[in-house]
Amino acid sequence: MHTKKVTINYLKNSKQKLTMITAYDALFASIFDGFVDMILVGDSLEMSFGGKNDTLEASMDSMIYHTKAVCNGAKLSYIIMDMPFGSVISKEIALKNSVRAYKETNADAIKIEATFNNLEIIKHIIDNGISVVAHIGLIPQNSRCESGYHIKGKSDNEADSLLNLALNLEQAGVTMIVVEGVVESVASKITNSLKIPVIGIGSGANTNGQVLVWSDMFGFFDKFKPKFVKRFLNGKELVQKALTNYIDEVKKGEFPSKEHYYKG
Ligand code: KIV
């Protein structure tokens, strides 16, 4: 449990595995704060909470709204704001939106889904004083153009290209890399080749840490469950059981009882 604000130096020098979880509001951010090293305000909120099929509808306004809420609830964990689809498509647009993210929230860093195409844009943002976490491998914002979600690094070509991209991103100055949906041996090689922390999701155990979407890992989101998700709680079942108790007690007139009354 952290008692002081987590800094990038702490994350870079930690000898222990790092933990990251998503949060989208002050309430849950305050529950997770200090337990995990990092909280990610992911655009996954479009799917887990917005009921959408992908993350593409997230906007700068909505990401800023949710990041502000998370920053209100969390004072210890390192906070990362996801940059939504279309928000970093040119140097000018990317810098304007990244500066906005820093000015309007207390996020410690922003996260960008990275390819060779936006490497120079990412460098431009970093050169202007903003910490960037790069997200590589299976990048969810590509799901429409790739017709779904596909594991990356299966061929030698793809594996080499991912390693090369990670090395270039480190060279450009990114703070950390999130590696999603990458075969375990490739994620492992990337981790061993970089000095900055590599955080995995669906990429095996040999990265410097792990990230999961909270509603997946606590069993609230059950539309589908990717192979890499472990349910640490049966959240939906527990909430529905409590809800059934509430409904029963209201119907039987057992709730509210005297202890919940105001006396005149
Ligand atoms: O949006 C998100 O929650 C993410 C994680 C899955 C890494 O990008």
TrEMBL record:
<keyword id="KW-0963">Cytoplasm</keyword>
<dbReference type="GO" id="GO:0008168">
    <property type="term" value="F:methyltransferase activity"/>
</dbReference>
<feature type="binding site">
    <location>
        <position position="82"/>
    </location>
    <ligand>
        <name>3-methyl-2-oxobutanoate</name>
    </ligand>
</feature>
<dbReference type="GO" id="GO:0032259">
    <property type="term" value="P:methylation"/>
</dbReference>
<keyword id="KW-0479">Metal-binding</keyword>
<dbReference type="InterPro" id="IPR003700">
    <property type="entry name" value="Pantoate_hydroxy_MeTrfase"/>
</dbReference>
<keyword id="KW-0489">Methyltransferase</keyword>
<dbReference type="GO" id="GO:0015940">
    <property type="term" value="P:pantothenate biosynthetic process"/>
</dbReference>
<feature type="binding site">
    <location>
        <position position="113"/>
    </location>
    <ligand>
        <name>Mg(2+)</name>
    </ligand>
</feature>
<protein>
    <recommendedName>
        <fullName>3-methyl-2-oxobutanoate hydroxymethyltransferase</fullName>
        <ecNumber>2.1.2.11</ecNumber>
    </recommendedName>
</protein>
<comment type="function">
    <text>Catalyzes the reversible reaction in which hydroxymethyl group from 5,10-methylenetetrahydrofolate is transferred onto alpha-ketoisovalerate to form ketopantoate.</text>
</comment>
<dbReference type="InterPro" id="IPR015813">
    <property type="entry name" value="Pyrv/PenolPyrv_kinase-like_dom"/>
</dbReference>
<comment type="pathway">
    <text>Cofactor biosynthesis; (R)-pantothenate biosynthesis; (R)-pantoate from 3-methyl-2-oxobutanoate: step 1/2.</text>
</comment>
<comment type="subunit">
    <text>Homodecamer; pentamer of dimers.</text>
</comment>
<dbReference type="Pfam" id="PF02548">
    <property type="entry name" value="Pantoate_transf"/>
</dbReference>
<feature type="binding site">
    <location>
        <position position="43"/>
    </location>
    <ligand>
        <name>Mg(2+)</name>
    </ligand>
</feature>
<keyword id="KW-0808">Transferase</keyword>
<comment type="similarity">
    <text>Belongs to the PanB family.</text>
</comment>
<feature type="binding site">
    <location>
        <position position="111"/>
    </location>
    <ligand>
        <name>3-methyl-2-oxobutanoate</name>
    </ligand>
</feature>
<keyword id="KW-0566">Pantothenate biosynthesis</keyword>
<feature type="binding site">
    <location>
        <begin position="43"/>
        <end position="44"/>
    </location>
    <ligand>
        <name>3-methyl-2-oxobutanoate</name>
    </ligand>
</feature>
<feature type="active site" description="Proton acceptor">
    <location>
        <position position="180"/>
    </location>
</feature>
<keyword id="KW-0460">Magnesium</keyword>
<dbReference type="GO" id="GO:0005737">
    <property type="term" value="C:cytoplasm"/>
</dbReference>
<feature type="binding site">
    <location>
        <position position="82"/>
    </location>
    <ligand>
        <name>Mg(2+)</name>
    </ligand>
</feature>
<dbReference type="GO" id="GO:0000287">
    <property type="term" value="F:magnesium ion binding"/>
</dbReference>
<dbReference type="GO" id="GO:0003864">
    <property type="term" value="F:3-methyl-2-oxobutanoate hydroxymethyltransferase activity"/>
</dbReference>
<dbReference type="InterPro" id="IPR040442">
    <property type="entry name" value="Pyrv_kinase-like_dom_sf"/>
</dbReference>
